[in-house]
Design goal:
The chain is mainly beta and 256 residues long. It has one domain: outer membrane lipoprotein receptor (LolB), chain A (Clam). Strands 6-5-4-3-2-1-13-12-11-10-9-8-7 form a 13-stranded antiparallel sheet, with helices on one face. β12 and β13 form a beta hairpin. The longest helix has 13 residues. The protein is globular.
C-alpha cells in the first residue's frame, strides 16, 4: 500500500493478520519468519478492501475513498472512488512494474524506481508504501532486537535493513509485531543519516473478512507537527479468486 503495509494498504500498506495461538515453536521463529507470517496473513491469497484515507494538516483536512485488490505479493490494484476530482485514478503493481492511470488526461504512466519515494497523492505515505514495489520479506535483511510491549501486547521488535540490490526509500525500518496474533502494531522509518522520519501506528483491532486485523493506520511525520495520514479499512474480503489478467494496464483504464 517500505513501510510495511507496511503496509500497506494500502494495500496494504499494510497490516492485516489472522489470529493464531502462541506456542513454544513461535519463540524460536527467526526475524524473517516473523515478518513473513505478518506479511502472509496481511495479504491472504487475495484481498479486496474498501478504504478511507484522511489527510490531516494543521489548517485543513481532506478525505479520499478507494478500493484495493491484491493477489499474493506480486499483484495489486488501487482505484480512487472519491472525491470527484480524483475519481478513477488507478495504480497497478504487476510483478515489479508499477503503473498509474490518470483519466483526466487519459494517460498511463509507468513509475520508475525514483518515483517510489515520492508522496502518494499528497499523503504522508510514499508511492511504495501504498503499492508495495518492495517485498518486506525478500528485499530486507531482518534482525531480532528483543521484545517490547506495544498497546498492551507483547511484540517482537525487528530491525529491517534493505538489501544492497533493493531500490528502497528507507535506510532502516524497525517494526513491532504482536507475538500472539502477528499484527504489526508500530513501525519506524529512518533515512540514510539514521534520522527517524516517520512513525506508523496500527490500532482498532477488528474482525473483518473473518480475520483479526488492525483496521486503522496512522502515518506521522516526526518533523511536521500536526500532520498525519490515516488509513481506515471499512471492509475486507479475503481469499476470493482473482485472475491474474485482472491486474492489467488495459483493465486499470476500465475500473469504476
Amino acid at each position: 500500500m517500505k513501510n510495511l503495509h507496511f503496509i500497506i494498504v494500502i494495500v496494504g500498506i499494510l497490516t492485516f493478520t489472522a489470529s493464531s495461538k502462541p506456542s513454544k515453536i513461535l519463540q524460536d521463529l527467526s526475524a524473517k519468519e516473523v515478518v513473513k507470517r505478518a506479511d502472509d496473513n496481511m495479504r491472504g491469497n487475495t484481498s479486496q478492501a474498501d478504504i478511507t484515507i484522511q489527510i490531516i494538516r494543521p489548517k485543513w483536512h481532506r478525505e479520499m475513498n478507494m478500493k484495493a485488490w491484491t493477489k499474493g505479493d506480486e499483484y495489486s490494484m488501487i482505484l480512487v472512488t472519491s472525491p470527484a476530482k480524483e475519481k478513477g485514478i488507478t495504480f497497478l503493481k504487476r510483478i515489479k512494474e508499477v503503473w498509474n492511470w490518470i483519466p483526466s488526461i487519459e494517460r498511463t504512466i509507468k513509475l520508475p524506481p525514483s518515483m517510489m519515494s515520492q508522496s502518494w497523492m499528497g499523503t504522508d505515505f510514499t508511492n511504495d508504501d501504498l503499492v508495495k514495489e518492495a517485498s518486506a520479506v525478500d528485499d530486507y535483511d531482518h534482525k531480532h532486537l528483543g521484545k517490547e510491549m506495544i498497546q498492551g501486547s507483547d511484540c517482537y521488535k525487528i530491525e529491517m535493513i534493505p538489501k544492497p540490490s533493493a531500490a528502497i526509500v528507507w535506510e532502516k525500518v524497525i517494526v513491532w509485531i504482536d507475538s500472539e496474533d502477528f499484527l504489526q502494531l508500530k513501525a519506524e522509518f529512518y533515512d540514510e543519516d539514521g534520522t527517524l522520519i516517520n512513525i506508523m501506528n496500527s490500532s482498532e483491532v477488528k474482525i473483518l473478512g473473518g480475520r483479526k486485523v488492525t483496521s486503522r493506520l496512522e502515518m506521522i511525520p516526526v518533523d511536521k507537527e500536526g500532520n498525519k495520514t490515516v488509513i481506515i479499512y471499512n471492509d475486507i474480503l479475503f481469499d476470493e479468486e482473482i485472475k491474474d489478467d485482472f491486474f492489467s494496464t488495459r483493465n486499470m483504464k476500465q475500473m469504476k
